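Quick question: what would this complex look like in 3D?
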Amino acid sequence: MIKFKDVNKWFGSLHVLQNINVHVKPGEVVVICGPSGSGKSTLIRCINRLEKFQDGELHVDGMPLHNYSINLTKLRAEIGFVFQQFHLYPHMTALENVTLAPIHVRKIKKKEAKEIGMEKLVRVGLGDKASSYPDQLSGGQQQRVAIARGLAMSPKILLFDEPTSALDPEMIGEVLDVMIKLVDEGMTMCVVTHEMGFARQVAHRVIFMDEGEIIETEKPDQFFDNPQTERAALFISKILTH
Amino acid sequence: MIAYYFQRLIEIFPFFLKGLWMTVIVSCLGLIFGTIFGFIMGVLRSQKIRLFNWPIGIFVSVIRGTPFVVQIFIVFFIFPEWGIQLNAISAAVLALTILGTAFICEIVAGGIKAVPKGQWEASASSGLSIVKQLRLVIIPQALRTILPPLVGQYVLLIKDSSVVSVIGVVELTRVGWLTVVRIPEGLMVFSLVGILYFVISYPLIRLSNGLEKKLSVGQISL
Ligand SMILES: Nc1ncnc2c1ncn2[C@@H]1O[C@H](COP(=O)(O)OP(=O)(O)OP(=O)(O)O)[C@@H](O)[C@H]1O
Ligand SMILES: [Mg+2]
């Protein structure tokens, strides 16, 4: 479903992604972690082409992203992206946020899109907030609307970039619960997160990055209990004491 | 004597209304076209496309850096030398359009740049084309920043339209000049001219202030 082969990326002279090789199969849940600046965001942003890379091959849902002439709309319609800062559209209600892409990208009729949108909002536990604007919602609620927005396109892949890092501690649980439900439904997911509990509970693999490189790829329990490298061990001890 | 001139002024008041009408027509056309082209250019300018950015930057600087009276002379006297024949009214509308375009371009580009990058990324991620990202997500938010100074710019354009009297368009200011010749009470005549400008500008000033207040607090759905 997602296949990185020797991908390299530079920001100017900064080598942010170094020989990345990752293969994510359908239905797989991969957690990506690592210190700040290690290239986690850059890595998952390559998957929906928010970032370009200079070298290597990347296939997503059968599309070759190393060819610059791919149909971006078609690619992105199949991939939901959830941001750390939610990025809901502030001038639209929760329901309008969710139905925008179905109406304007999938060309679904408004009425039908609303039904789909309501269904997704109910799924993230916000059926009663359909007509609220983002600034009337808590952080956790906004992030759940953002997840519903991603789901409304019935994507094949969902990408999360630190979905709980901007949230007050008491709201993290409600967002993780929604994500765990999605895992149970068989969604293919790449999640940048430091939530160890989430990783242990649902991830099939943990990828540990440092300075643009993938240092370890392990099953979660193996990774957290018995890291193979010193860098990973140091990182784990840091998030544990946090 | 004053009373007599006042009497005369009232007699020729319809002439002032005609001038006012011309001012309204010329500046309305200028600001409508200026808004259209200004939005197009402003959107292009906000996109950092080198092909557009550079010429638009020069255009804006030149227009902002030269007096409007010079611009209108160039449009009226120099364009015909290049084979573009314009009557005074068309020249006035064209010059006002160019002026409006330059200023509105900057207002629009600034408003678009003020929309957080995350809004572009979120809308792009959901598969919307660039045009739809702009139309559905970016511009509606940018309008909050754009509208108050845009309406303020309309007021400036209406006042700047007085300059087109120099090429003989019989608008409000020109009517003032023509009247002073017959009624040598400058204060009285130009007070009337000023009042009439104020009558059309004031509602816009109120609108601009109102928009500023309304758009800066709370939620509005556009
Ligand atoms: N647009 C950009 N231009 C130049 N350098 C960038 C850009 N975006 C990111 N970088 C740099 O690339 C490196 C990797 O950034 P990235 O955001 O992928 O890290 P990250 O692992 O997601 O970090 P964090 O945990 O802080 O989010 C960092 O050193 C960052 O400063
Ligand atoms: Mg990041």
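Answer marked as accepted. Residues 88-154 of chain A form one domain.
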